[in-house]
Amino acid sequence: TSLVPPPPPCGCPPLPLLPPLGAPACGIPPAWAARLGATGFLISKCCFPLFKAKPGKAKRVRTIFSSEQLARLEQEFARQQYLVGQERCLLASSLHLTEEQVKVWFQNRRIKWRKQSLEQQQAKLAKMGLDTPQR
């Protein structure tokens, strides 16, 4: 039976069928191999978002904080919501993180704190029977 690739959802013409995935891939450029679908069909660039990244701009890898790091960051945030200069440097060094990672964590945590504060304020107003303020 001959497998015919379905047309891509973007309306681009389907690209030609390549040899099955198990077949030797002599001469196929690595970029093509990365774009092979599970069916063995070549996926068009416009349908493959990984190839739409801006040239020269690498995506930042998401930092996974350990539970100990998070506990210490939360402890410092409870003490003060802004860390600058030497304080940030010392905290970053003690947690084996970069200053940038600590800075971004504090920025994100302040956003979360503001959102929680607003929700609590709206809940109090709703309890008192008042309308919630408009943003």
From TrEMBL:
Signal peptide: none annotated. It is found in: Nucleus. GO terms for biological process: central nervous system development; neuron differentiation; notochord formation. SUPFAM superfamilies: Homeodomain-like. Residues 56-116 form the Homeobox domain. GO terms for cellular component: nucleus. It comes from the Eukaryota. This is NOT2 protein. It comes from Elachura formosa.
